[in-house]
């Protein structure tokens, strides 16, 4: 009896171990299957997001190209300046008579797209402070000094910004990778690399940009805020605000028309102003199920037939998004 009980206990133990092993293997197989499905889903979402955002960028390029063909004046009443509010992507695709919901597919059916196009020549270009050789541009420094005064920012920070930018440009052209040289910023948020305080960067953000150009970029009077116009034209802020109010009713056809409100401007100040633009920023936001991706691109309109992408970056803003869609710069 004792031996039979021992054998029965051993058999029961073996059965329990067998069940535990089978359950472990099954759980491991199930986890592997789940992981494969998640990776495939993330990869599919990445590819879909990439194609959709690339399509939206091509659409923005087309709008800017057609706008250039319609005239040489850029203002806020043109189609490119109208923001795209969040809308279901399938509503645009289904407008095509040859496309049905079955052709669109379930992934795109749940995609929502929004975006804006901003004239970057409505901002002051920080890189205008120095020549490509590192030589300071006194006229641009004067314009930035006016902007700092309008925003009640310390002039010492402007001097530090200009000097460190000059140092970075010289180091980049003569001794790349120098240990003591600051990095050249690619975006306004990176002005901190040049010793600018976070508070100053935040105050400057709505009014400045960074464009890699060899010549100073004129400020577009039809799109720039009053603070930028006042700094570029060297006039009181109240006059610039009056110009902004009047241009909302009828845009300026040339920079000379601004003198009716701003007063007579010297040739060098008129040279810093314009009514057309070549640089634009496109921001697109894609919401695909639980995934939210934002893309920023800088476009240069070279002529009526050529709109080039000179900078592009894409960032996942949803903290729960797949790691495969982490921030990427191209």
TrEMBL record:
Gene3D superfamilies: GSPII I/J protein-like. Keywords: Cell inner membrane, Cell membrane, Membrane, Protein transport, Transmembrane, Transmembrane helix, Transport. InterPro entries: GspK, GspK_central_sf, Pilin-like, T2SSK_SAM-like_1st, T2SSK_SAM-like_2nd. Its main location: membrane. This is Type II secretion system protein K. It is found in: Cell inner membrane. Belongs to the GSP K family. GO terms for cellular component: plasma membrane. Residues 123-212 form the T2SS protein K first SAM-like domain. GO terms for biological process: protein secretion. Residues 219-266 form the T2SS protein K second SAM-like domain. The keyword Membrane applies.
